[in-house]
Amino acid sequence: MGNSKKLSLAIAGLILGASLVACDDGRGGAESAAKQFASALSTLDVGSVAFDGKDSGVAKQQVQDVFKALEPDKPTVAAGELTLDGDTATVPLDYTWKIGTGEWKYTVSAEFTKSGDNWLAVWNPAALVPGLADNEILSKGTQSPQRADILGADDAKLVTYRPVVNVGIDRLLLGSADAAASATKLAELVGVDPAAYAQQVAASGAEAFVRAITLRDEGRTVTDAQITAIPGARAIPEAQPLAPSRTFARAVLGTVGEATAEQIEASGGVLTAGDVTGIGGLQQQYDAQLRGTDAVVIRAQLADLTREQIQAAGTDPRRVVFEMAPTPGTPLKTTVDPNLQSLAESTLAGVGPASAIVALRPSTGAVLAAASGPGSNGYNTAMLGQYAPGSTFKIVDSLAMLRNGLTPDSKVECTPTLTVDGRTFKNAEGYPETSLGSVALRDAFAHSCNTAFIAARDTVTQAQLEAAAVAMGVAVEAPALGAAAFLGSVPGEAAGTEHAASMIGQGKVLLSPLAAAIMAGSVGKGSPVSPQLVLNPDAGAAAADTSGGTTAEGASPSSTVTPEAPAKASGQPITAAEAAALSDMMRAVVTSGHAGFLTTVPGAPVGAKTGTAEFGKENPPKTHAWIVAVHGDLAVAVFVEDGGLGATTSGPLLKQFLTAAAAG
């Protein structure tokens, strides 16, 4: 390369270097400072930002004070196109806040000044919120919309706002009266703990209203006159979302109340202390759908403004910087028939142990009633209970036997006892001797001959039992139900005494009362019943746990299959012809078996199957009492946990329910 060429390159390099220096007018440093400021604001921690004439620690505290009311929310802050003017730079800051389901967006301007080689942020509260002054902070107010109703069949209002009164002591009304004496009198009047309530009143502020109890206005026995006769006591009217009665479908519907600590923690900031939310059941599962979204208003106000000053001012001294209208909740539509649900509950009212009545409409799968008795202590026995179904499971056995070529008229051997691997199985006490020996399958089913069904174990495999259960819509998932439920567990493999026990609905075979009603309903329908409880589940609602959640000891949820498409090759859905044969056998239980008491139920002929399942270690063992029935387009299961015999315990409850249902 010639010298001239080298010289020209060197000159070019000098010129290029000079232009780079000339371009570095501080823009890069200012942009860097702006990005750092935006990043710090996104965390609401500006402790690392260098300010012009303001201590970073003081600025950090002020930013936290300004936005404290919005905790735990934080904004996303982005720096826009910077404008440079000598040693001063301005940059737009774009804020985006997620407020509930909405967004609060605004743009403010931040200023930077050059000090030596550094760019410093100029402190200005208006760079946090438009127009914010140095002595102002934000406040946030929310107001929940009215909670949506839960509806039943024909849009009957199951849960809706009903009038209540909050009964308590108003400290302002007490005057010179003795607070402890008034509190004790009121507590005794409304039936709460006098000592605890008196302590609560004593610990409250001078202007507080201390609630003792909330009473439904309708039908209350404590009158306003009795309340106001006690110094300082008063009843404040209000409305709350309530079912028709305190017990009505409570385990299914859930309740509404102040969010628990666990719910607040699990909500990820959606719920805060004092928020009203669904507790248990459908109210909790579909809380977002029923609650809607709150109205939100964010205001700028003087940091030391008091509630009294706000109330005393003619016009509100705060200014609104953001407002979001509420979104009302969407009513939840269910299939529950209020009359049948109430009837089921009143039928179980006197039953001591855990109990349940489930009624559904086979033609549609609509769950009309799912009642758990008082002995269930608030647990949803009807839908979540996991129990050995006893001889009601002979409906499933019989389907497997029909599929192996038998008919209701086929002969089976009913012996007094049968021994399998050293374990002796026998028939129920009082089994009629006239139905022993070689009898028709129909007769063995009608009188519930255990030995005849156990004797079929060599021709009915455990896998065939599982397939027959699946064919009837049980031991499956229930995607259309829309609520947590256990639809049964039937192991696909079992040998020896366990397989024999499966033939009489024991061993590891488990059903819920809902599953038992589905099993009977599939006979009535002539195809598998796919149960439905919730008609309009919000896509955003919590997914229902339809596998039954935690399983009973020794049980496992069955594989994910639906009645319409069983996963097992042999588990083809029950056919109309198979269902007709089973209907014939279930009718025989009423006409010639031990459910003859159902012959007097008015309307369509009733088909039924009783069941008694042993449980526990006692001798003689305790038993679950079951009965299932089909009555026209109604399938019902009745269950009593510690109930003796199905025919004598659950049978009369079923008769009472069906007779009243037919009359209603």
From TrEMBL:
Subcellular location: Membrane
InterPro entries: Beta-lactam/transpept, Beta-lactam/transpept-like, Beta-lactam_class-D_AS, NTF2-like_dom_sf, PBP_dimer, PBP_dimer_sf, PCN-bd_Tpept
Catalysed reaction, written as an equation: a beta-lactam + H2O = a substituted beta-amino acid
Enzyme class label: hydrolase
GO MF term set: beta-lactamase activity; penicillin binding; peptidoglycan L,D-transpeptidase activity
Region (Disordered): 540-571
Location (main, coarse): membrane
Protein's UniProt keywords contain Hydrolase: yes
Gene3D superfamilies: DD-peptidase/beta-lactamase superfamily (3.40.710.10), Penicillin-binding protein 2a (Domain 2) (3.90.1310.10)
EC number of this enzyme: 3.5.2.6
Pfam families (alphabetical): PBP_dimer (PF03717), Transpeptidase (PF00905)
UniProt record, GO biological process: antibiotic catabolic process; cell wall organization; response to antibiotic
Keywords from the UniProt entry: Antibiotic resistance, Hydrolase, Membrane, Signal
Signal peptide: 1-22
GO cellular component terms given for this protein: plasma membrane
Positions of the Penicillin-binding protein dimerisation domain: 143-297
Domain Penicillin-binding protein transpeptidase: start-end pairs: 356-657
Transmembrane segment boundaries: none
Record-linked SUPFAM superfamilies: beta-lactamase/transpeptidase-like (SSF56601), NTF2-like (SSF54427), Penicillin binding protein dimerisation domain (SSF56519)
Family: Belongs to the transpeptidase family.
Protein name stated in the entry: Beta-lactamase
